[in-house]
Amino acid sequence: MTMLENRTAIVTGAGGGLGRGHALFLASHGARVAVNDMNGEAAEQVAAEIVAAGGKAIACAGSVTDEAKVGDMVEATLGEWGSVDILVNNAGILRDKSFAKMDMADFRLVLDVHLMGAAICTKAVWEIMRKQAYGRIVMTTSSSGLYGNFGQANYGAAKMALVGLMQTLAIEGEKYGIRVNCLAPTAATNMTDGLLAKEALARLSPALVSNGLLALVHADAPTRAILCAGAGHFARANVTLTEGAYVGGGADAGERVIDAWDAISDRAGELVPAYGFTQLERELASAAAADQ
Q: What is the distance of C-alpha 233 from the center of its chain?
């Protein structure tokens, strides 16, 4: 069980729940793990647990929104082991309310922790990974972002934003050996208390999600994948583009869009774009074909 031997991983929000499961899992496969959490005592406990099991770990206390603390964490990891090969952006919070009752302070806070926290941590290791021509980065997205969930406008917005961040960083990091993916977990943690029935929670061990990490961080990992994981079940989510229909311009173009809605929405032949300009290329090709 040493597929990650001599690899160094940072896991954020790893003092409990999914993050703890991720840290223990990566360590069990040979990785050296920097355990991050705002709660320094919790991070110390998880690091001690890894060491007691024969692994290597250090604890790094601090918020992922604190650029100085994140910088200290990365420096401590480099000082201990000389590299950062894997980053799992797991840290997060919930501030659930319907949008009508949600204040903007809670909206900003959730985006700050999930989105900016992941961006700050990723930026802190990006140049290291570029120089060593190797890196594996995991963003934690959610079905709430991919598909929506009542009462989670802030959380869903942050989680879908992480998909966009992943898509672009995977493209930018490709020539440097950096592969970037998303994990969309379902697990029984403090964040899901009161949301699911006890029978469902019993099947949703965080460890069953962490198993999916190996596919996203090993040497031959994919890039730009969204892996959905829960209760031992794994699936892929994709952002797709339909073939669409050419409508053109003119005074009644809006009405023609409505008339062509079924053709525009037809999923037969849809694709997963390799990059954002795929949409532009398809639109120009369609317009050119209409002119012939």
A: 18
**Residue ranges, the chain, pLDDT below 50:** none
Task: Check residue 23 and give its pLDDT.
Answer: 98
> What radius of gyration do the chain's Cα atoms show?
21
Cβ within 8 Å of residue 211, ≥6 positions away? 25, 229, 232
- Buried b vs exposed e over 16-35: b needs ≥16 C-beta within 10 Å? bbbbbbbbbbbbbbebbbbb
Rounded to an integer, what distance in angstroms lies between the CA atom of residue 263 and that of residue 130? 43
Please check whether residue 182 is in contact with residue 162, taking contact to mean a CB–CB distance below 8 angstroms. yes
Q: How much helix, strand and coil, in percent to the nearest 5, is found in the chain?
A: 50, 15, 35
pLDDT, residue 12, reads 98
Question: What span, in angstroms and rounded, lies between the C-alpha atoms of 8 and 84?
Answer: 5
Tokens of 101: 């009752």
pLDDT of residue 234: 97
Token couple for 159: 């989680």
Q: Are the C-beta atoms of residues 23 and 57 closer than 8 Å to each other? A: yes
Q: Which amino acid, residue 153?
A: A
Candidate list 134, 147, 155, 246, residue with the active-site label: 155
Domains in the chain and their CATH numbers?
8-237 (3.40.50.720), 253-291 (no CATH)
Q: Which helix (H) or strand (E) holds 2?
A: none
Catalytic residue check, 275: no
What per-residue confidence (pLDDT) applies to 114?
A: 98
Evaluated on CA atoms 202, 111, 127, 41, the torsion sign reads negative
What pLDDT is attached to residue 1? Answer: 56
- In Å, how far are 48, 63, 76, 78, 245 from 58, measured between CA atoms? 8, 16, 9, 11, 55
Answer whether 85's CB lies under 8 Å from 131's CB. no
- State residue 200's pLDDT score: 76
